[in-house]
Amino acid sequence: MNFRNLVAAIAVGVGTLATAVVAEAADKKVVVAYQTDALPSSVAIANGEFAKETGYEIDFRRFNSGAEIFAAIASGDVQVGYVGSSPFAAAVSRGLEVKAFYLASISGIDEALVVRNGSGIESLNDLKGKKLAAAPVSTDHYQLLALIKSLGLTEKDVQVFAIPQPEIVASYNRGDIDGGFVWDPALTELKKNGKVLVTSKDVADKGAPTFSAWVATSKFAADNPNFLKGFASVINKYYASFASDKSAWGPDSDNGKSLAKLLGGTADQQASALKNLTLLTPEVQASDAWLGGGDKAGAGKILKDTASFLKEQGKVSDVLANYGAFVTADALTGVSN
After folding, report:
1. 316 burial class (0-12, 13-18, 19+ CB within 10 angstroms)?
2. Does pTM top 0.90 for this prediction?
3. Contact, 320 vs 326, CB < 8 A?
4. What's the burial of 6, exposed, middle or buried (CB within 10 Å: 0-12/13-18/19+)?
5. Does 26 score more than 70 pLDDT?
6. Which of 61, 106, 261, 288 has the most CB atoms at less than 10 Å from its CB?
């Protein structure tokens, strides 16, 4: 081989290697969807720790609801997202292939039905004839409908409006609706001129539990297991900090200020919202009661029960035999607090 041919051969080889490196770098890009809920791990969105720990270039995009996030996942625009169990159940019942790999929170007091002062609602017995709202296909929407059913009422007895949270706040402040089942920051806004009538935990205790989770498309989960492990480890780091060091999450803390800058509101409001969360350790999440156990997974049962209720309400047309395939504890293996 002469010198010219040798140089040409090297150039081709380097070009091929460069192409491979670029392709590998391109593979380490992911779009992650989040919402306005106050979560300790959201600080890692603001400071870039998710990207640093996983080694991926992450495009974080904010959405108003889980339904919007699932629409983006279905279109291929989003690979990982933070969603509630009701839109989750609806999406997989319609054929979307995703897996929950970390439970962000379970039914607590961070979501609630707030009724407006002057609405004439003092107790659950006063809901008949009233106008209530929740975000479409959200866990709040599901729990509001479940609550109404538990009281022996129907949507003919109580007008339920499925509208985005910003519209709920505006309608509530105008006096167009009597209450809304919401999460923060809408929860804080509604409480300024009203009171909490019932919380998500109360409705869960009545037989309609919910959870919020980080999900990934099944393909992304299969192709990027180390990303999910790294992502889960970051979430757990912040959850452990929140559990053990309350001073680091107060209204004057850097964490509170970081959340306010990312999600809106004030550091004081964010610190207050965090106190309402019900969080699970990775060990509990990985148990059969939640993400572990395959077909016996507790979270899968919640999804199936939710889907069954949504079918009764005409929100979905089919209920699958089992929902265990849509949850996994794989990302929690080796993750400790």
Report:
1. buried
2. no
3. no
4. exposed
5. no
6. 106
